[in-house]
Amino acid sequence: MSEIDRLFPDYFIMITGCLGCLGVGKILEKSKILSWFGRNSLVIMALHCLYICIVCEYIQPYFDSKIIYKITETVIVFALSISSVFFINKKMPWVIGR
After folding, report:
1. How far is CA 15 from the centre of its chain?
2. Do the Cβ atoms of 55 and 26 come closer than 8 Å?
3. Which pTM was predicted?
4. DSSP character for 65?
5. Which of 12, 34, 43, 68 sits between 20 and 30 A of 21, alpha carbons compared?
6. Which of 76, 82, 71 is closest to 51 using CA atoms?
């Protein structure tokens, strides 16, 4: 087996992986939801850890099941993050440089 034959599958996988990533990027370029999350990711990333800590402190003692708690935590943190994005964009745009 020559060196080219041995390396060809690796190059093929690398090239198709790169082309696949570019293709997915082109398809998702038109997604309004991903575009909105991209424009507001600074607020979401800045506040989600704070919200997780708050939920962990005040909500976790009421749950016996870890799975149900994590689902509830995800929903609450998501709702608080989204509402924070709308509040900051509307009332305090200077916080994020707008």
Report:
1. 26
2. no
3. 0.68
4. -
5. 43
6. 76
